[in-house]
Amino acid sequence: MMLPIILSFLVLGSIIPVFLKDKSSFVGRGLVMLPAFASFVCLCVAGVEVVSSGQSMTWTREWVPSFGLSIGLHLNGLALLMGLLITGIGTLIVTYALGYMGGKSGTMRLCSLLYLFMFAMTGIVLSNHLIILFIFWELTSVSSYLLIGFDHEKASARRSALQALVVTGLGGLALLAGLILLNQMTGTWMLSDLLAGDYQVAGHPLYTGCLILVLLGAFTKSAQFPFHFWLPNAMAAPTPVSAYLHSATMVKAGVFLLLVMQPVLGGTSEWSHSLMLAGGVTMAIALVYGLRQADLKKILAATTLAVLGILTFLIGVDTKYSILAALVFLLGHALYKATLFMTAGAVDHSTGTRDIRLLGQLKKTMPLTTPAALLAAFSMMGLPLFFGFLGKEYAYKSVAGGSWLTIAVLLVGNATMMVLAARAGVIPYFRKSVGDLPKKPHEMGLLMTAGPLLLATIGLVIGCFPGLVSPLISLAYTGIVADAEPYTLSLWHGVNLPLILSLVTFTLGFTLMKVLRPAVVGKKVNESTFADTVYEHVFKFVLMVARWSTKSLQTGRLRSYVIIILVSSCTLILWKLVRFGGWPSLEKIGPVNPFIALLLVAMTMATLFAVFSKSRLTAVVSLGVVGYGISMIYAKYSAPDLAITQVLVETLTVVLFAWVVRRLPRYRKLSTGFERFMDTGLALIMGGVMTILMLKSQGLFLGPRISDKLAQMSYPEGYGANVVNVILVDFRAMDTFGEVCVLAIAALGVWALVDKVTTKGK
Amino acid sequence: MESLILRTATRFLYPLLILLSLVVLYRGHNLPGGGFIGGLIAASAVMLRALAVGWDEIKASKILNPIALMQYGLIIASFSCLLSLVVGNVFLEAVWLPTWYLPLLGKVKLGTPIVFDIGVYMVVLGFALLCAKSLDSNNK
């Protein structure tokens, strides 16, 4: 029962800000922060139970039992680790956001959206049913779209938001297909079954397809090569959003997916090769990109990409220790990256710039932000006593027995990360020289400094005493790797290969810091990547095709629409007629009823009258005659409902027309003689085809007639003697509901086109 | 189109036609009629009135606001669809009250299909009115 409560707190959190009147008061701020904190506390309470019992907590509620769909939630080690990060960092981010926005308009919108995102993200990690996971997955895409495009008045923000939505949305669709394939192979929707059971899917014919689709989902979300380009662009978001999306949430969703899929899909060479390749390439691209940036947030985005690459790489290495290393790395990264983003936001707020070529000497003016950034940067560098050190140690440990290539990849990656960490967390505060800052720097309030300080301190504390988080990591680890022993993290492992590799990393890192200088002021920084340009071209191409098809299909001329409708329906009917073959028999035609014959003659004459008339009113009235004729035929063949409706509709049409007829432009022939000739031909063909269809349908038996059955059921099941009405309001009420909705929309369309446009024009 | 005869006749015809539309709406479940036809009859009645006395009087009327009619019609129709869920049936399955007898009307059977039909009636009426109103305001 705890799990839905946790989620409902977050839903509550997204609603509260909307109704809050007093936005900057102490109580108001407290109310905004409270739901996140409450869900964090609930998760802690549930977590204690899960850790102490070693059993995961589940909650299931039937949704659509006939499709095997249920709202299944569960809390295992990995979900607990992720959930604590999401809600814990979430609480601090909401606090920070309140300070960052400073009561400006839109503060509450930002908080509400942050909560929506938090809800979606927590939903992903808690879901047990794969389809529920997918729904939350898509919700993160949608809410991140709103968050990235928060400054919707900026074109660049809108573009970045749309880009993130398109990329992650496409990946989401691939993921849905992948999950369905997974269900086809294993026969279960439940993640807990997949994690516990021993499913042999590696040799299954659907395996490769499923793997590709699931990886597409994970790679787009976690911005792995070749979908890495959306992440740096997403920096258009306000800093609290970046801090949240790129540390503990959004981009970790893909990593989370890879972790939970590892027991089922992992263990094959396809799995590890594709993950190691994508991860390695992403890391390389990100680091090269990061070294060329001067914007604090872009540098941090690049390191996020690099870390995601390393995580994917580690999961791909696919040994017991590599999963452990990925988990430790993930926790460490969430802590220091959220801190660094928040301090970057504080620097931006304080100085008015994020350009590291200008920043320096902030330690004097920002005494609270500086230690937070410094501690986080040290953790990111992987200095001993910080949690980042452990992440690096375990990463080296997991590849220690492997090939030299994997070791080299990690070595270079970690060393370059040190350079970027120094640029993001040390240089702005300690560099001697200072450029021309747009604003005089000052320290931020408690709302904006408390969060980073707390997170940075946690990174140091659990780095010194890893035993504090050991049970949590160990539970997540044993939950993913089936035959793993519970593991206790420790700081000192003696002198071994990982330690030596760490020392090599430090040497290399400090050397690189000396060699690679940040770009100089005034030099243009290339911010776009090749993949981004490709995306741009593809996007433009799609728009071009859409424009072309719209222009050629939606001509705006009634004549061409009618032609398209008639030609296509004619073709379809003819195709079906030819498939049945044979000429229609004329045997079933009974004697001609004189009344009907007279009616038909009148209707034909009225039609000809309408075609050749020189006045619009004559044409309309003639068509009305045709309509009344049809209604009489209905009445004759005992369809009173249809007949009444037809009469009324004809009447109303003529009346409506009488209103507008005087206001319309002069009655003219707009088509050429040739066009009219072709139209006549088409009309004759259509008439002929319909006649053949009618005759043919008399002699065909396609199955029991549905109308008989409906008529039989009408009274006993629908309690109505009028079967037409029972069909409309009971048997097929869904169709009727759709139709009345269409009616309402059509009426609004008429109103907008006729009423609004003409009054505006005047 | 000012005509004394039309105006006087409308004064009697309009309420009668509206009543007729309601009767048609009610009896639709067993005899020819129903929400669609009832709505169309009501629309013709309103248009007759519009022809006789002009649109101003109808525009002033609170009940005959087309957008509100469509809006509440859709709400009523969706309410009748959702009621089955509350009772515990499948979505859209009809829910009926027990039958009782009234003088004049005879056997009365009320259920969600009737409510649904009322929604349809309102949307159809609103649709016709909004179209007519839009086309007419073009005149001015």
Describe this structure in words.
The complex is a heterodimer of chains A (762) and B (140). With 762 residues, chain A is mainly alpha-helical. Chain A contains 31 helices and two strands. Chain A is elongated and about 110 Å long. Chain A starts with a helix and ends with a helix. The mean pLDDT of chain B is 81. Chain B has 140 residues and is mostly helical. In chain B, α1 packs antiparallel against α2, α2 packs parallel to α5 (112-137) and α4 (66-87) packs antiparallel against α5 (112-137). In chain B, β1 and β2 form a beta hairpin. Chain B has five helices and two strands, in the order ααααββα. Chain B has helices at residues 4-27, 35-53, 55-60, 66-87, 112-137, and strands spanning 100-102, 106-108. Chains A and B meet through α27, α30 and α31 of A and α2, α4 and α5 of B.
How do the strands line up in the largest sheet of chain B?
A: 1-2
Mean pLDDT of chain B: 81
Helix and strand composition category of chain A: mainly alpha
By helix and strand content of chain B, what is the structural category?
Answer: mainly alpha
Radius of gyration of chain A over alpha carbons?
Answer: 34 Å
Number of helices of chain B: 5
Helix content of chain A: over 70%
Poorly predicted spans of chain A:
none
Cα(first) to Cα(last) distance of chain A is 62 Å
What distance lies between the first and last C-alpha atoms of chain B, to the nearest angstrom?
Answer: 15 Å
Rg over CA atoms of chain B: 17 Å
For the largest beta-sheet of chain A, the strand count, sense and barrel status come to: 2 strands, antiparallel
Oligomer: heterodimer
Greatest interface (CB-CB under 8 A), with counts per chain: A-B, 42 and 51 residues
Tally of helical segments of chain A: 31
Tell me the strand percentage band of chain A.
under 5%
Counting DSSP E segments of at least 2 residues, the number of strands of chain A comes to 2
